[in-house]
Amino acid sequence: MKVNLISDTVTRPTPGMLDAMMNAAVGDDVFKNDPSVIALEEKVAEYFDMEASLFFPSGTMTNQTAIKVHTQPGEQLICDKYAHVYNYEGGGVSFNSGVSCKLVDGHRGMMTAEQVEKAINPPDFYHSPLTTLVCIENTTNKGGGACWDFEELKAIRKVCDDHGLKYHLDGARLWNALVARNENRKEYVELFYSIRVL
Ligand SMILES: Cc1ncc(COP(=O)(O)O)c(C=O)c1O
Predict the structure, then answer these.
(1) Chain segment 41-86, per-residue pLDDT in tens
(2) What is the pLDDT, as a whole number, of residue 11?
(3) Are residues 66 and 116 located together in one domain of the fold?
(4) Which of 11, 34, 82, 149 could make an SS bond with 142 (beta carbons 3.0 to 4.6 A apart)?
């Protein structure tokens, strides 16, 4: 039997899933009265022990919003050369947030803390964009589903703290990474200012 793993969109909803959709309680999320969205946001926030969570219809929208929240136009973020936020998302970081990306030549989409530190522009050198954010991805998309070593993620957090940088996790397939590495989800997400999961 062949299984097509190119995307979760190649699978089809089962009758049980369709039934759940047809019978879901719905409302207007703008007025914060969609019970299903509220329940989902509460569940995810509690699951990761985070202050709050927000439902977005796509991962791209979530990343774009997080980057916008953490940066000001003209600033620079650091990411691996394979990063989804750089290679895809329609170049949205430059359009939506007005930031540029400093690309790191990592391994399968993963950088070392040392590489991240070297990629930071000197903040007093006003000719270069101010570095304010580090984005990492787990599992990596273009890196072929590689997952990070937790110690390296902690070391990058230390670099962020030392240099006053924010830290965003693009957690596409984060659940797979947590299972593969047998990590504690709460300790894991504690490292980041924001995470996005699907
Ligand atoms: C690492 C990563 N970030 C972002 C996305 C974008 O998610 P979406 O297709 O929901 O916009 C994907 C999708 O595959 C991804 O793998």
Answers:
(1) 999 999 999 999 999 999 999 999 999 999 999 999 999 999 999 9
(2) 84
(3) yes
(4) 82
pTM: 0.93
The protein residue whose alpha carbon is closest to atom 16 in ligand 1 is 141
Pocket of ligand 1 (CB under 6 A): 58-60, 63, 84, 137, 141, 170, 172
Q: Domain of 31? A: 11-55
The CA-CA-CA angle for residues 24, 50, 134, to 5°, reads: 115
Contact by Cβ (8 Å): 176, 145: yes
Tokens of 129: 């964009």
Give residue 186 CA to ligand 1 midpoint distance, Å. Answer: 22
- Alpha-carbon torsion angle 80, 194, 56, 67, nearest 10: -50
Q: How many angstroms separate the alpha carbon of residue 127 from the centre of ligand 1?
A: 33
What is the Å distance from ligand 1's center to 36 Cα? 23
| Eight-state DSSP code of residue 52 | -
* Residue 106 belongs to domain with CATH number: 3.40.640.10
Q: What is the pLDDT of residues 138-149, one digit of tens each?
A: 999 999 999 999
Q: How far does residue 153's CA lie from ligand 1's centre (Å)?
A: 20
- Please give the Cα distance from 39 to 76 (Å, whole number): 35
